[in-house]
Write a sequence for this structure.
């Protein structure tokens, strides 16, 4: 799906999510966007040493999916730099997700730019620590956990 903004992505998700059994919110959509854009370069002004950029919140796409009357199984992600477990648990509850996959992005040996990762997977009543391994191995393990949760979700 080709999108250029969070609003475009929200519209695309809303058009198609009703047919989904699982929604995996892996896109890292920015929390904020500029309140306005300039059609041309913003030039510096003599005597002015600083400028401010006003930001407004982007829509929370994954929370909007989880808030649907009959949501699919909703899987979110949390890239954290500290207190990974507590921040992920709070996000799981705040956004009413069924599952969240969290990793510590402050570590240089895993995650962004590395061949391996290590994640913590949380649901309302379970925790899984997927130890450091290749991203493809983690993806297979994660899909197996999602399949297990989907069976529980479908039975509920």
């Amino acid at each position: 799906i080709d999108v250029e903004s969070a609003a475009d992505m929200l519209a695309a998700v809303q058009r198609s999510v009703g047919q989904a059994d699982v929604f995996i919110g892996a896109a890292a959509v920015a929390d904020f966007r500029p309140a306005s854009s300039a059609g041309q370069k913003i030039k510096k002004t003599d005597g002015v040493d600083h400028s401010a950029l006003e930001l407004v919140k982007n829509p929370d796409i994954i929370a909007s999916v989880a808030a649907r009357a009959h949501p699919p199984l909703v899987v979110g992600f949390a890239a954290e730099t500290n207190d990974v477990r507590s921040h992920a648990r709070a996000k799981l509850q705040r956004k009413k997700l069924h599952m969240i996959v969290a990793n510590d992005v402050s570590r240089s040996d895993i995650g962004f730019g590395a061949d391996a990762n290590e994640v913590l997977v949380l649901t309302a009543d379970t925790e899984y620590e997927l130890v450091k391994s290749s991203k493809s191995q983690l993806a297979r393990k994660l899909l197996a956990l999602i399949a297990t949760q989907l069976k529980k979700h479908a039975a509920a």
Notes: The longest strand covers residues 73-80. The beta strands are 22-24, 32-34, 55-57, 73-80, 99-104, 116-123, 127-134. The longest helix spans residues 135-155.
